[in-house]
Amino acid sequence: MATPIGNLRDIGLRALDVLKSVDAVAAEDTRVTGRLLSHYGIAKRLIAVHEHNEKRAVKQVLALLGAGKSLALTCDAGTPAISDPGALLVAAVREAGYAVTPVPGANAAIAALSAAGLATPHFLFYGFLPARAAERRRELERLVALPYPLVFYEAPHRVVESLADLREALGEERRVVIARELTKLFETVASCRLGEAVEWLEEDADRLRGEFVLIVEGAQTPAPDLDRARRTLETLLAELPLSRAVDLAVKLTGGRKNELYKLALDLKKRDS
Fold first, then answer.
1. Which of 84, 135, 224, 260 is a plausible cystine mate for 75, CB 3.0–4.6 Å?
2. How large is the greatest C-alpha to C-alpha distance in the chain, in angstroms?
3. Residue at which a domain ends, from 51, 74, 95
4. CA 228 to CA 183: how far, in whole Å?
């Protein structure tokens, strides 16, 4: 079930009903969930289920379920199993034949997107980039050409390094929305070029605090020249097998392989 991402009033009424009704709460951090429960006057048994003990905790949770008890699963902020522990436990509970019911609520990525002002129906939620610089850069190389906004979570101690790597991999001109401390007292949502992002953060030490959502605009893809692509494919298909003709057309026109492959199939059908 989803818990507040900052402001304790982010909690849903249904989530409060669930917390009041269950026998125990499996929590990423029992201290954090304890404060949430205390705030709403709820007293429950707490079981720690975090990244270091999740496999071991499965047995304890299954034993409680086997005894007819009900449990809620929470993480520190947001929804369990989404860039947080919980997926292994959910899989084990489902495999054991017990029902798993989602209780939705506040989400940092969606909250940031709603305030970003990006007029696009599509986005890629990546979550946390790798902590090691070399792995992070390799991952970013895979994302360079994607045409939709890229949504990342980042921790305060890595945000400068990650923004620097985003700038190097994606270029200085792409816009980035930097959202931090969402729904909290010092919430900030700012937008700038990737080339300006590190400088903007470092202008004020307070901007480096808190949890971050970074939204980078997608690659700008030029509209394909279909007439040119068609003429190129017609010439190549007269001399080469379809797959080879498509590969060469991609290099010659800069078009997308899947689109050119479909066009090549249509041309083949027309000529057959």
1. 84
2. 77
3. 95
4. 50
